[in-house]
Amino acid sequence: MTDMQRKPLLAMTLDELKTVVQSLSMPSFAGKQIADWLYKKRITSIADMSNLSVANRTKLSEAYEVGAYAPIQVSTSQDGTKKYLFELNGRYIESVMIPDGDRFTLCVSTQIGCKMGCKFCATGMQGFHGQLSATDILNQIQSIPESQQLTNVVFMGMGEPFDNTDNVLRVLEVLCADYGYAWSPKRVTVSSVGLIPGMIRFLKESQCHLAVSLHNPIAEERADMMPAQKAFPISRVVEEIKQFDFSGQRRVSFEYTMFEGRNDQQRHVDALARLLSGLECRVNLIRFHTVPGTPFKGADEGKMVWFRDQLNKKGITATIRKSRGEDILAACGLLSTKHLMNQ
Fold first, then answer.
1. CA-closest candidate to residue 6, choices 43, 59, 48
2. Percent helix, percent strand, percent coil in the chain, to nearest 5
3. How much is the pLDDT for 106?
């Protein structure tokens, strides 16, 4: 684990790094040099920053450290998906790396547990145990063995990203800025149940893709499954999204886990089509993976195909997402470290 006496440099923006070097009376250009070491060369020790003088490396290391730390465990699925476990001061988070041909996607966490309490989600049942710092979020991307191979990152792991907006936005800046990873925003997707204040900030301050956890278009039914519906009704969420332009390269999608008898009827097709009318978007239909202690059962394959086809007939682009990593509890809705916390 990181040394809490020293501040981590990992996930600092270029402006923040310039402030650091200024405070230590180092040359102003050293901020860009440090950014190169952190995000281009991915070093793990200040001692490796060889174009800084020994004196400046010493000064820097007295107050700061890189802040990267390795996962403590990896589980590998029969389909090649890998789930990484990270420890943070006796708490735990999980990240999932999904290979698909030459595409490598990492699903990262933004919180320890989650406050949202969605009744079908293992993370939500775990409860909330703390925010992840920007360092802890970016470390998941930087410290796995496949870091340099990653083609995409999705903020769909443990936690609600827009309940931790400042740190998420800082990580997005580092990922997409020229001084950082220099990724196209098209490689990054952030998922939310629809926390409107954070979502609006994200849509204004970033060009990354948005994915909304919808799961039921009927207000009363969604509220019974997802408590966030009461504070942030999905109708309001969609109206806010419609204020932004998704006709170009930026995309908005809606995640829709299908439950037998609960959100897979014709009335749900009709309500979903009305809700999303006029919005350039995609609906991703997701298989439900049984979570112990919940009353939900997944819709069968035939019903999912029917639902997809009905939406497509109404002009709503819908696809069935391939399920990955279920055998290692890495699929959608299954991430939980509750058993580790109770040891």
1. 59
2. 40, 20, 40
3. 97
Residue 113 lies inside a defined structural domain of this protein: yes
CA 93 to chain centre: 12
| In a shared domain, residues 259 and 146 | yes
Q: Are strands 111-113 and 128-131 parallel, antiparallel or unpaired?
A: antiparallel
Asked if the structure places residue 2 within a domain, the reply is no
What distance in Å separates the CA atoms of residue 114 and residue 156, rounded to the nearest whole number? 12
Structure tokens, 239: 């109206």
> Token pair 């990955």 is at which residue?
324
pLDDT digits (tens, 9 = 90+) for 53-101: 999 999 999 999 999 999 999 999 998 999 999 999 899 999 999 999 9
CA distance 275 to 334: 28
Indicate yes or no: pTM above 0.90: yes
The residue range of the domain holding 143 is 73-341
Domain count, the chain: 2
Is the same domain home to 60 and 79? no
C-alpha 31 chain-centroid distance: 28
- The more confidently predicted of residues 237 and 343 is 237
* Residues 44-58 pLDDT 10s: 999 999 999 999 999
Residue 340 has pLDDT above 60, yes or no: no
Catalytic residue among 107, 176, 208, 332: 332
Distances (CA, A) of 224 to 228, 230, 245, 256, 335: 10, 9, 31, 15, 22
Set 94, 160, 173, 255: catalytic member: 94
332 catalytic? Reply is yes
In a domain, 38, yes or no: yes
DSSP E strands, 169-270: 188-192, 209-213, 252-258
CA 332 to CA 122: how far, in whole Å? 9
The domain that contains 238 carries what CATH number? 3.20.20.70
- Measuring CA to CA, how many Å separate 55 from each of 26, 31, 50, 58, 321? 10, 16, 11, 5, 53
Q: Which pLDDT tens digit goes with each residue over 162-215?
A: 999 999 999 999 999 999 999 999 999 999 999 999 999 999 999 999 999 999
